[in-house]
Amino acid sequence: MDHGDEGAGRAAQSRRKDARRNKEALLDAAAAVFVTSGVDAPVRDIAARAGVGLGTIYRHFPTRADLIIAVYRHQVDACAEAGPALLETSATPYDALGRWIDRFVDFLVTKHGLAAVLQSDSAGFDALHAYFLDRLVPVCARLLEAAAAAGEIRADVDAYALMRGVGNLCVGADSDPRYDARRLVELLVAGLRRPH
């Protein structure tokens, strides 16, 4: 392989990395716009926030459904990747668990509108729901195991049941200003502590 081929390979790799970064920036922008304006927000608002042209968005995501699904998956991935990072950087595993649950609540509360849109395509929704569980339940389980191994929480907490409980506490959080889902989730997480 001559140096010309090597240089071309590096350039192609750099272009792929740039494209991936641009796509992630676009998904972050779309998620932010969806949170403030709902999933029916004009695509031009997303393009403006991401600093790209409309053509760039349509090249990556030909339909609004494609964009919504990509945003949902991107947010699930970010939440999943946060778990191990929080275990590394938090003072204790229990602290990591609490911070991750807080992030999970952010995801649940801010994805309003996504689920409703996806209900119209039940096969697509089922696939996304399976993706959500496959990615997030093992992360939650790892955080619970670490906190239990450190003697901070009881050892009999099931990750799926905890996530389901948190999800149920978040239902309706945006429709009643007197209802503070985050406060109730904090009480739930505090209840995991082992009695002294």
UniProtKB/TrEMBL annotation:
Superkingdom of source: Bacteria
Pfam family, one: TetR_N
InterPro entries, A to Z: Homeodomain-like_sf, HTH-type_TetR-like_transc_reg, HTH_TetR, Tet_transcr_reg_TetR-rel_C_sf, TetR_SbtR-like_C
DNA-binding region(s) from the entry: 42-61
This protein's UniProt keywords: DNA-binding, Transcription, Transcription regulation
Keyword Disulfide bond attributed: no
Residue ranges of domain HTH tetR-type in the record: 20-79
Protein name: TetR/AcrR family transcriptional regulator
Organism of origin: Streptomyces fimbriatus
